[in-house]
Design brief:
By secondary structure, the chain is mainly beta. Helix content is 13%, strand content 34%. It has helices spanning 154-167, 225-236, 259-269, and strands at 2-7, 12-13, 19-20, 26-28, 37-41, 90-91, 102-103, 107-109, 116-122, 127-135, 138-146, 171-177, 180-190, 196-208, 211-219, 239-240, 280-285. Strand 14 (196-208) and strand 15 form a beta hairpin.
């Protein structure tokens, strides 16, 4: 059966050392495919794992050519490097149906056994900015943006991320991974004792038809290919629903709470009014 739980969380620093005011909606998945939902309450404290590390400003940047003043990136690889998407991530036009995936609006995702999905929410704007999948000691945040019809944008964005990190005292190096050219980075943060500490992350990007999907791996997945393998499969299984609307390049595509999760939350909270961005629902499917 399925167990629906509301999760209370306290605001605190994320793994990247930034304050994270976003509520998180979590989904733990099993292979049962159970649809029944039983309401109960569970309060617990959680930390957001790598939800906002080293973000490049994708929403405000225009469709300009790459700035040639970037820092030199160690290990810079030849470009362009087109990823074979025959094994995903997929465009909606490439998938027959989405019945076995959760509908998050611009993204359709299939959670894996034991995985939690956390909604990354901009409290001021009130919109969902990304989805973070947590599996064991690893995490992966996925975000999707509009892109020009004529060309991909990952090469430019990768330079921008690297430039910002190197300027701030971090490091970035290009590597060829399962999702094409990736950026392995060390992100600086000031520790409680005043010393500078570093956290590892790995940025991957996929250029699709008029969309760009970004994945940020953190925790063990940032440095251990074995730990990242399951999350890479999760990213590859993602389906992007861009829509046909005209959008500015790098505009964040709209995400939403899946209807099934929202309806379960409303049933649990009735007759109270639910603000889905204050406390995130958690669904655990068990045998």
């Amino acid at each position: 059966m399925g167990i629906f739980r509301r999760k209370a969380r306290e605001d605190g620093p994320t793994a990247s050392g930034h304050d994270d005011d976003a509520a998180s909606a979590e989904v733990e998945s099993d292979d049962t495919g159970a649809e029944d939902v039983e309401a109960t309450d569970l309060a617990s404290e959680t930390d957001s794992v790598g939800s906002d590390v080293g973000d490049a400003d994708l929403s405000d940047a225009g469709d300009d050519e790459a700035d040639e003043s970037h820092h030199e990136i160690p290990g810079r690889l030849p470009r362009p490097h087109d990823l074979d998407r025959s094994k995903g991530p997929f465009d909606r036009s490439e998938v027959k149906n989405l019945d076995d995936r959760l509908d998050f609006g611009a993204l359709a995702l299939r959670p894996l056994a034991g995985m939690e999905l956390r909604l990354d929410v901009d409290q001021e704007a009130g919109n969902i900015t990304g989805i973070t999948a947590v599996l064991g000691e690893s995490a992966c945040q996925v975000q999707v943006f509009a892109a020009p019809k004529s060309r991909g944008i990952w090469d430019d964005i990768r330079d921008e991320i690297a430039d910002g990190l190197i300027t701030g005292g971090g490091s970035a190096i290009e590597e060829l991974g399962p999702l094409g050219i990736e950026l392995a980075v060390r992100i600086p943060a000031r520790g409680n004792d005043g010393r500078t500490t570093y956290s590892a992350a790995r940025f991957a990007g996929v250029d699709g038809p008029r969309w760009f999907l970004r994945a940020v791996f953190s925790g063990a997945a940032a440095t251990d290919a074995g730990a990242a393998a399951t999350l890479v499969d999760f990213v590859r299984d993602t389906v992007v629903l861009r829509g046909s609307e005209a959008r500015a390049p790098r505009e964040l595509l709209e995400l939403k709470v899946p209807d099934a999760v929202a309806e379960a939350a409303e049933e649990e909270d009735a007759p109270r009014t639910l603000d889905p961005f204050e406390r995130g629902p958690e669904i655990t499917e068990v045998r």
